[in-house]
Structure formats: structure tokens, C-alpha cells
Amino acid sequence: MSWSIPLYIALTVALLTEARRLARRKAFKEIAIFLSLWTIAFTLVVADQLGVAWLRPLNWIKVIVQPLNKLLS
């Protein structure tokens, strides 16, 4: 069974519900963080489905977390 379709559905539902909730609260930093993490997750699902080789998980997590730490500081 392919897990890509359920993951696409879960990511879409998460985008619709959480983005709307965060927009109502006007939490712009949280929106930016949520959308960046959502984009990474969606891109990784697409890349996995296409069979594209990516960096090791700890490397790309480090690349993403460093700017987010600066944003939140």
C-alpha cells in the first residue's frame, strides 16, 4: 500500500485547519514556522514518492532549525 495518498490528505487537512486557526490568532511567527515545516514535510513526501535521494534527516533538520531559532530569539 502506498502511504503517499494518506499523507497528502493528512497534510492538506493539517494545512487547512491549523493555518486558519493561526490566522485567527494573528500569530505571524507561528504561521511562518508552521508553513515552513509543512512545506518541508510535503516536499519530502513528494520526493519519497518520486524516489529522489535527500540529505540525511539530521542534516536537513539542523539546516531548518537554526534559522527558526534565530527567528524566535
Structure description:
This protein is mostly helical and 73 residues long. It has one domain (4-72). 84% of the residues lie in helices and 0% in strands. It contains 3 helices and no strands. Helix 1 packs antiparallel against helix 2. The longest helix has 23 residues, at 28-50. The chain is flat. It starts with a helix and ends with a helix. The model has no long low-confidence stretch (mean pLDDT 80).
Q: Care to give the gist of this entry?
A:
With 73 residues, the protein is mainly α. The chain has helices at residues 4-25, 28-50, 57-72.
Give the SSE map.
Blueprint: H1 4-25, H2 28-50, H3 57-72
Helix pairs in contact: 1-2
Describe this protein with a few key phrases.
flat; 3 helices; 73 residues; mainly alpha
